[in-house]
UniProtKB/TrEMBL annotation:
Residues 6-120 form the RNA-editing substrate-binding complex 6 protein domain. This is RNA-editing substrate-binding complex 6 protein domain-containing protein. PANTHER family: FAST LEU-RICH DOMAIN-CONTAINING, LD45607P. GO terms for biological process: mitochondrial RNA processing; regulation of mitochondrial mRNA stability. It comes from Pyrodinium bahamense. InterPro entries: FAST_kinase, RESC6_dom. GO terms for molecular function: RNA binding. Pfam families: RESC6 (PF26188). The lineage of its organism: Eukaryota, Sar, Alveolata, Dinophyceae, Gonyaulacales. GO terms for cellular component: mitochondrial matrix; ribonucleoprotein granule.
Amino acid sequence: MPGRLGEFKAQEVSITVYSCALLRFWHVELFQAVCGHALQQLPQFHSQNISNMVYAFGLVGFRNEALLQAVAAHTPGRLDEFTAQGLSNLMYGLGLLRFRHAAFVRALCRHVPRRLPEFNPQNMSNTAFGLGRIGLRGTGLRLCGTGQATYL
């Protein structure tokens, strides 16, 4: 399958990784191929594809630094495209992977407060969990409201 990823649309890529996560299926060759494919196609990925992929990699504990750096660099300009669930799943996945990227966290922390009315309790807790896992001090969403990111 890794050799056929070029045939996959972004949604199919993210669903494949998410399915692996749900099945607790670990396949390094597949995950590395997905990361390589996603790096080339990231601008074509919808926000949901990005958040689902990062969330899924977080669930299985697969960390690809190049992909995470690309996601952190690519998504700040697209945060308006993410649903509240997408934002929270993205931050939750990054937290599971303990991926710290100060510029991304600052962008997220500037963005989330104006979107809080859209967040349900699960979205809030997932976001706070993710911020806490990367070492953000204080209550994740309270500190997020200040627009500052301070790490432990």
